[in-house]
């Protein structure tokens, strides 16, 4: 099946054709590192991670660039976010950057996101940004006023093609805040003059100042991916003004298409309300990981299409926990049986047809604009058939068990990142899972012989340890940790 993607620029699905056969160049807007990352970041970057994983699994050589914004991202008030963080914590701006960049990377590692190949920082690419601004000035796409340089949107006929906002429709003060020194309110800053109290400043042909937010992405993307590249990823909230301005200045610089495909992740709300510290509903990734395993958070994100909005609540996360546990039941059973010393050789089953169908259905889903819910559905169909085989009393041999585990590990682990690797069974988490699954099977045997006292004793003993068993039509699942202990 040919990979088809929804291009946010054209607003339609298109066959994906890389500019170089077998090779993909991808840029994703990174975070502004002035505070801990929140679950909205988890939604966006898990979505981008799965896109990267699937493309590599499909055989492409992929260069993945994700920037770090450590200067120039201004609030609507004109205040630099990094400086705001520095004043809040009474430290140097670069202390804020280092602290929260490391925090962000720790969060991404904890979520099992693949590290980008290149993570350039805006402050480390000021010369490239100055050179781009000089070229735009020379071409007549920009003008300088009192040490600040602005992009003249009227000089670029295609400005507004991404967001659909044409210059004539823009109103003063609409996100790109109006400044008295600009010719028109819709023009945006390429370089800003540093006021005397502004700490972050660099020398330039126009005096000391700092780069605008939009120019950094253009300079770094084109430095590492070329003047035109395949995929630009990010969040749908940034179409205007960031992506619109980024695209306009880049295409003005090169005269060619900036990015061929724009893959944008939908937004996240908390209990139906936009997440905001002022509302008290902001949830950091670290806080979420205290209550839910990384695989559960990934499962929650991937239960919806990456381009759709998603609403997070304890109810939704609880449903994700149950869904993930249901998926893990046969995985744990298969892995435990594989690890059992002295397992007698059994007749191998011809399970290859089931596994081939699972692979094909999974691939079809992911090739349809990275449809993770369809891919998960393929894994759940495989789970249904594996559970049916095990419930029938069949004793599959090592070759069959290994083949089943390989499919779960490759697709659910390698591509989606929701199934931990088999080697995890050698650690504490793996031993816990194996022991709980063994007790679940002992409980099932007790119920089968109508020894309900023993069955209830196993259930109650696990509950006392903070492990809750849930019986359903597809078998018994379990959940552990803070949430289970609270319910107990």
Structure description:
- The chain has 488 residues and is α/β, with parallel strands linked by helices.
- The chain folds into three domains: 270 residues, 3-Layer(aba) Sandwich (Rossmann fold); 123 residues; 62 residues, no CATH class.
- 46% of the residues lie in helices and 14% in strands.
- The strands form five sheets. A four-stranded parallel sheet has the order 4-3-9-10, with helices on both faces. Strands 5-6-7-8 form a four-stranded antiparallel sheet.
- A hairpin with a 4-residue loop joins strand 1 and strand 2.
- The longest helix is centred in the C-terminal third of the chain and has 26 residues.
- The chain is elongated.
- The protein starts with a strand and ends with a helix.
Give the key terms.
15 strands, 4-stranded antiparallel beta sheet, elongated, 4-stranded parallel beta sheet, Rossmann fold, 15 helices, 3 domains, alpha/beta
Topology (elements, then pairings):
Layout: E1 4-7, E2 12-15, E3 23-28, H1 39-57, E4 61-66, H2 81-89, H3 93-110, H4 126-139, E5 142-145, E6 148-151, E7 188-193, E8 209-211, H5 213-225, E9 229-235, H6 239-254, E10 259-265, E11 268-270, E12 273-274, H7 285-291, H8 294-302, E13 310-312, H9 314-339, H10 352-367, H11 372-391, H12 398-415, H13 428-448, H14 452-464, E14 468-472, E15 475-479, H15 482-487
């Amino acid at each position: 099946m040919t990979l088809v993607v929804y291009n946010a620029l054209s607003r339609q699905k298109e066959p994906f054709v890389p500019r170089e056969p077998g090779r993909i160049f991808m840029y994703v807007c990174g975070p502004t590192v002035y505070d801990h990352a929140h679950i909205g970041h988890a939604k966006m970057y898990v979505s981008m991670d799965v896109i990267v994983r699937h493309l590599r699994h499909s055989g492409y050589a992929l260069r993945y660039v994700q920037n770090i914004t450590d200067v120039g991202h201004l609030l609507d008030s004109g205040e630099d976010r990094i400086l705001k963080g520095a004043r809040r914590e009474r430290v140097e701006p670069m202390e804020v950057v280092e602290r929260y960049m490391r925090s962000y990377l720790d969060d991404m590692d904890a979520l099992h996101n693949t590290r980008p190949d290149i993570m350039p920082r805006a402050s480390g690419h000021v010369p490239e940004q100055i050179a781009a601004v000089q070229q735009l000035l020379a071409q007549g796409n920009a003008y300088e006023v009192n040490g600040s340089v602005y992009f003249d949107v009227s000089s670029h006929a295609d400005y507004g093609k991404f967001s659909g906002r044409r210059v004539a429709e823009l109103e003063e003060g609409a996100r790109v805040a109006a400044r008295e020194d600009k010719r028109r309110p819709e023009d945006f800053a390429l370089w800003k003059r540093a006021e005397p109290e502004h700490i972050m400043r660099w020398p330039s042909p126009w005096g000391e100042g700092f780069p605008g937010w939009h120019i950094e992405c253009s300079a770094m993307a084109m430095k590492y991916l070329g003047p035109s590249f395949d995929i630009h990823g990010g969040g749908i909230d940034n179409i205007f003004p960031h992506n619109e301005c980024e695209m306009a200045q880049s295409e003005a610089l090169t005269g060619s298409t900036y990015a061929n495909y724009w893959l944008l992740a939908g937004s996240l709300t908390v209990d139906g309300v936009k997440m905001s510290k002022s509302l008290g509903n902001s949830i950091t990734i670290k806080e979420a990981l205290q209550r839910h395993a990384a695989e559960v958070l990934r499962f929650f994100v991937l239960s919806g299409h990456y381009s759709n909005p998603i609403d997070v609540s304890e109810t939704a996360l609880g449903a994700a926990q149950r869904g993930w546990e249901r998926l893990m039941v046969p995985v744990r059973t298969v892995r435990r049986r594989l690890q059992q010393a002295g397992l007698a050789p059994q007749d191998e089953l011809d399970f290859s047809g089931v596994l081939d169908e699972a692979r094909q259905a999974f691939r079809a889903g992911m090739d349809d604009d990275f449809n993770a819910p369809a891919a998960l559905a393929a894994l759940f169909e495989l789970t249904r058939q594996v559970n049916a085989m095990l419930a029938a009393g069949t004793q599959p041999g090592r070759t069959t068990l290994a083949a089943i585990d390989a499919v779960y590990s490759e697709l659910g682990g390698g591509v989606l990142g929701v199934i931990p690797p088999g080697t995890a069974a050698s650690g504490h988490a793996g031993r816990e899972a194996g022991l709980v699954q063994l007790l679940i099977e002992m409980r099932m045997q007790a119920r089968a012989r109508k020894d309900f006292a023993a069955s209830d004793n196993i259930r109650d003993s696990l509950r006392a340890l903070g492990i809750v068993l849930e019986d359903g039509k597809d078998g018994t699942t379990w959940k552990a940790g803070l949430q289970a202990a609270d319910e107990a």
